[in-house]
Amino acid sequence: MEPIQTEFDFTLPRGFIDEKGVLHREGTMRLSTAMDEITPMRDPRVRGNEAYLTILILARVITRLGTLRTINSATMENLFSVDLAFLQDFYRRINEEGLLTQPCTCPNCGFQFEVDVIRLGES
User: What rounded mean pLDDT belongs to the chain?
Assistant: First the structure.
């Protein structure tokens, strides 16, 4: 039996800029557990604004972002909106769909192929 992959690397489209002005784009997200989705529901910030649930879940499942030692809700709150949207989609893909590739068609020749979305954005 092949071991299940539980951590996935990503590259943010823009990146997180820390308080020292350092840009962090490379990161790792792990698969979520039931507790990752249940525990944030108890947080008063989620009761006041359900959209905050995303912030808390991502803060729990992102295990690495550049050289940051701590990733928390404040880190997620200060992401550029394009990066937050990217991470929401990435989370959904690895946890709900299990899809790591996206079908594509070349606009010039019509050739159909798949792109590894885990590596999308890496050069």
Answer: 88
